[in-house]
Amino acid sequence: MTDVIVVGAGPAGLTAALYAARAGKTVRIIDAEGIGGQIAKSPLVENYPGIAKMSGMSFADNLYEQVSALGVEFELSTVLRIEKGENGAHIVITEDGNFECRAVILATGAKHRLLNVPGEDEFQGHGVSYCALCDGAFFKGHPVAVIGGGNTAITDAIYLSELASEVTILHRRDEFRADENLMERAKSIPNIFWLPNVNIEEFQGSGNLTSIRYTDKIDSSEKVLKVDAAFIAIGQVPNNKAFEEMTDLDENGYFVADESGATKTPGVFVAGDCREKSVRQLTTAIGDGANAAVAAWKFINGESPR
Length: 306
What we know:
Layout: E1 2-7, H1 11-22, E2 27-31, H2 56-68, E3 73-76, E4 79-84, E5 90-94, E6 97-106, E7 110-112, E8 128-129, H3 132-135, E9 143-147, H4 151-161, E10 166-170, H5 180-187, E11 192-195, E12 198-206, E13 208-216, E14 222-226, E15 229-232, E16 236-238, E17 268-270, H6 282-300
Parallel strand pairs: 1-2, 1-6, 2-3, 6-17, 8-15, 9-10, 9-15, 10-11
Antiparallel strand pairs: 4-5, 5-6, 7-16, 12-13, 13-14
Helix pairs in contact: 1-2, 1-6, 4-5
């Protein structure tokens, strides 16, 4: 029996494995997509303390090598569910077999909701971004777009207005869902421009993004907006549905847990972007992973995880 099984090999999961292994626990990581999670797709990480510049893939590879050196095992498989075993143990059911453990850390992450239009995948990391806080500084003095109409989109636009030469907000509806105070603040900023009632048709460019082709829903005309970056802010989708019987989920599907990561099921902990919280960044995922690992080994040792 393994002491700790970590579901998810992103920064939160890898950090959880690192801390659990350093506490002398046997650890197995299970992930269907390989190492790194979302950060592995980032061409450059510049906002992690102590590291001036590094690709997301290099960051993930280094972290994986660190945990591998401690004897952490890795399984490439999809976790289907978790069942209760005997004597408080848990059975992690995967497509390729079952694994028994004393504690589980769910670091399943969240995926950005996609527009699913031509060019979106091609220019990801080359002008198309899902994180203004992560990538906005790369486009200082350049024209950029924000796509979305909720609080995140408007907050991103306000943040980017201090960096970019101009920010154009494109939204598929006439009305925006953001809070009134955010809207008033954004409307008072002179380099923020508004394009409601549009459908994004295509991201265009050669190597890097240079423009967005869109349709005006009022007159059905097709137009092109020249920008060097597009920040898509239409929400995220957590990967938590398979575990809803053992955990509490909020209205958006995120795990409900405090900073210890403890859930309503003893021995099941959560960490990273899959957890209900206000900030989802590389640094917060790392912190979640450490907290959940400490709580897990305390649980195994018969101590209170909180």
